[in-house]
Amino acid sequence: MTSPGLTARRGGPLKGRVRAPGDKSVSHRALIFGALAQGLTEIEGLLEGEDVLRSAAAMRAFGAEVEHLGPGRWRVVGQGRFSEPTDVIDCGNAGTGVRLIMGAAAGFDLAASFTGDVSLRSRPMNRVIKPLAEMGATFLGRSGGRLPLTLKGGDLRRIEYRLPEPSAQVKSAVLLAGLHAEGGAAVLEPEPTRDHTERMLRGFGAQVQVIDQDGVRHINLADGQKLTGNQVRVPGDPSSAAFPLVAALITPGSEVTVEGVMLNPLRTGLFTTLIDMGADLRIENQRDESGEPVGDITARFSELKGVDVPASRAPSMIDEYPILAVAAAFATGVTRMTGIGEMRVKESDRIALMAAGLSACGVGVEEEPEGLIVVGSSGGNHPASGGAQIITRGDHRIAMSHLIMGLAADGEITVDEPGMIATSFPGFVEMMRGLGGDLG
Fold first, then answer.
1. Which of 96, 112, 116, 119 is 20 to 30 A (C-alpha) from 394?
2. Is there a domain that residue 232 lies in?
3. Residues with catalytic function
4. What whole-number distance in Å separates Cα of residue 291 and Cα of residue 285?
């Protein structure tokens, strides 16, 4: 059954304090690490979106005890290994989940079959299949390495794998497989990607060596290491915090604070870019939670200006380019985003969908093979025209980005599949309404 559309309309200023939902990347990892570890792992602040719940179900299928104790509170008891599942592992829309779980499962003598929804079955898996196969895992499935597929693991050998393109998912899959490979594993990163896996490995008792040499990041994991259950507090997701913060920046008179946002320097590219654009962003109450830096971020309405976003910044904000494009639509001048070809193989072709959506809303935009150019509309004085119905192809970030745009555009904006928002941001609509947004 197709979910009804959702419409955003321009209204008054947005005001209030909210807490970002738990970080999706850390949430997936907390469940997987807890299942791989020996003993009890207690998790607070877990994102209870559909993607993460699929990973929780997968960990049960691999033999871990996974219990929901209350909002955001989970208990995982691992046996230090995965058992062979009795049924197909359905990862829904979770690209992070399936790639990390395949890496974790590859280290054990078992067979496991994986599938997902229509979107996930269309996404490439060869980038993670290739290094795992070099380590000794075997795969049987569709041409092009797409789901559904079956993995046969065990008897892995060490690999020193140089990432052909920046991907924290591939890096993490190799490191998780390396936990149970003879000789461990090493990953070489010409461009640093989010390091949640390295941080969490240390939190669960593993020794991870990270060295920067000749402009390349070398991550080495020795073999024979055992993980021990741990306590994890999941920080707020910067990718989710971006939506209410950008909404405040483009809606005249607004001031919004998002509490508990992860400030890992490999995840804050959007905030750096917004400040470059002239955004009034203030970060306070900085602290550490479970090995990750966090803080409270306040955004006030700002007269933004267009900028050239360095391609080198892409790994630290690859999920935030859709909402950045919305901010750029309300800026003065031109914003150029380059080196973002990875956006074409996310839940959808996000470059194409953002270009189409912005154009439908009266924004000047040019699509490039690995880039997007947005011509701003001079902010609150001359907002984007809006008045469009947006095709999202079931992509949650495309839906949320255009709804945020609708809160500040002249005409209302409707998205066709808002139900998919729950994959990463359950409670998004209620949060934005609570800040004063007109969504319905």
1. 112
2. no
3. 319
4. 16
pLDDT at 357 over 50: yes
Does 123 share its domain with 112? yes
Edge to edge, what strands does the sheet with 38-44 contain?
A: 65-70, 73-79, 38-44, 231-233
- How distant, in Å, are the alpha carbons of 47, 79, 167, 315, 410 from that of 194? 18, 28, 8, 8, 37
The amino acid present at 16, given as its one-letter code, is G
Please give the helix or strand (H or E) that residue 40 lies within, else none: strand 38-44
Q: Confidence class of residue 329 from pLDDT cuts 50, 70 and 90?
A: very high
Q: What is the pTM of this model?
A: 0.86
Residues near 210 by Cβ (< 8 Å), separated by ≥ 6? Answer: 195, 198, 217, 218, 219, 220
Mean pLDDT calculated for residue range 104-130: 95
Q: Residue 42, SS3?
A: strand
Tokens of 31: 């469940």
CB-based burial of residue 135 (10 Å sphere; 0-12 exposed, 13-18 middle, 19+ buried)? Answer: buried
Per-residue pLDDT for 339 more than 60? Answer: yes
CA distance 186 to 176: 11
Question: Mean pLDDT throughout 55-82?
Answer: 97
Neighbour-count burial for 286-303, b at 16+ CB within 10 Å, e otherwise = eeebbbbbbbbbbbbbbb
223 φ, ψ (degrees, to nearest 5): -80, 175
C-alpha 311/C-alpha 386 separation (Å) is 29
> What CATH number is given to the structural domain containing 332?
3.65.10.10
Q: Which domain holds residue 90?
A: 24-220
Query: Is residue 114 included in any domain, yes or no?
Result: yes
Check whether residue 151 and residue 131 sit in a common domain: yes
Which two three-digit tokens encode residue 101? Answer: 């779980």
Residue 300, φ and ψ in degrees, nearest 5:
-120, 150
**CA 344/CA 354 separation, integer angstroms:** 11
pLDDT digits (tens, 9 = 90+) for 421-432: 988 898 999 999
Rounded CA gap, 421 and 400, in Å? 7
Q: How far apart are CA 64 and CA 130, in angstroms?
A: 27
The Cα–Cα gap between 115 and 148 comes to 4
Residue 99 and residue 112 share a domain: yes
Phi-psi region of 315 (alpha: psi -120 to 50; beta: other; left: phi over 0): alpha
